[in-house]
């Protein structure tokens, strides 16, 4: 008796469809964070909400290329304060890529590495209006401009004209700087409400920014 081999449709023709993964919009907040303060958090939160970003990554630098690093405290303390400040904030995370790499922290190198790790991410580099003015002086800026979208946070007294395309965002004006906070601490003045409570406690516990 002749036997007939029956084939199911799946056996005769298999079609494999690879689902198209969605791209993710990710904000980047780079800086020395010496120390992190509520102005950083407000800026990140406002940009994330207004541009509907998936998240904002805070990336502390190992050695700032555009600043005098003599006043920059050890990375472990800056990272510890960021961990305290970001804890419990949905949509914020901490990336220690630049700390691990060491040396001068150039944004171009960081973005190239991030895009290698996360090819489906579109990066939005969040900058204050004062930093937008300095973009033409940045390391490999023309190449960087092809890899990211610049997001400028408006500030009084600074122009919104820029050499490179920028998405401008309005946020509540918070006249706080890390420099001012360091000066206040050095002069034994209070920094209540300028930094998260846990960051303030850490600064006090470790005796940071005091003149010795």
UniProtKB/TrEMBL annotation:
Which reaction is the catalytic activity of this chain? nicotinate beta-D-ribonucleotide + ATP + H(+) = deamido-NAD(+) + diphosphate
What are the Cytidyltransferase-like domain coordinates in residue numbering? 28-183
Could you cite one Gene Ontology molecular function of this protein? ATP binding
Q: Which of UniProt's keywords are assigned here?
A: ATP-binding, NAD, Nucleotide-binding, Nucleotidyltransferase, Pyridine nucleotide biosynthesis, Transferase
Q: Which Pfam families does its entry note?
A: CTP_transf_like (PF01467)
The record's listing under InterPro entries reads: Cyt_trans-like (IPR004821), NadD/NMNAT (IPR005248), Rossmann-like_a/b/a_fold (IPR014729)
GO BP terms: NAD+ biosynthetic process
- Family from the record: Belongs to the NadD family.
**Which PANTHER family does the UniProt record give?**
NICOTINATE-NUCLEOTIDE ADENYLYLTRANSFERASE-RELATED, PHOSPHOPANTETHEINE ADENYLYLTRANSFERASE
What does this protein do, in the record's words? Catalyzes the reversible adenylation of nicotinate mononucleotide (NaMN) to nicotinic acid adenine dinucleotide (NaAD).
Q: What is this protein called?
A: Probable nicotinate-nucleotide adenylyltransferase
Name the species this protein comes from: Lapidilactobacillus dextrinicus DSM 20335
């Amino acid at each position: 008796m002749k036997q007939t081999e029956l084939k199911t449709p799946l056996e005769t023709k298999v079609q494999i469809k690879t689902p198209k993964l969605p791209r993710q919009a990710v904000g980047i907040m780079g800086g020395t964070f010496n120390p992190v303060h509520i102005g950083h958090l407000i800026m990140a939160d406002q940009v994330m909400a207004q541009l509907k970003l998936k998240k904002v990554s805070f990336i502390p630098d190992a050695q700032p290329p555009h600043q005098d690093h003599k006043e920059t405290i050890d990375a472990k303390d800056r990272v510890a304060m960021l961990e305290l400040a970001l804890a419990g904030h949905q949509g914020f995370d901490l990336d220690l890529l630049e700390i691990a790499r060491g040396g001068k922290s150039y944004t171009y190198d960081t973005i190239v590495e991030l895009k290698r790790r996360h090819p489906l991410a579109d990066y939005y580099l969040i900058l204050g209006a004062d930093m937008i003015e300095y973009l033409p002086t940045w390391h490999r800026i023309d190449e960087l401009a092809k890899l990211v979208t610049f997001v400028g946070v408006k500030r009084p007294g600074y122009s919104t004209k820029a050499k490179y395309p920028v998405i401008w965002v309005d946020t509540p004006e918070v006249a706080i700087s890390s420099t001012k906070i360091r000066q206040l601490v050095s002069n034994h003045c209070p920094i209540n409400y300028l930094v998260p409570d846990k960051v303030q406690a850490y600064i006090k516990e470790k005796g940071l920014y005091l003149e010795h």
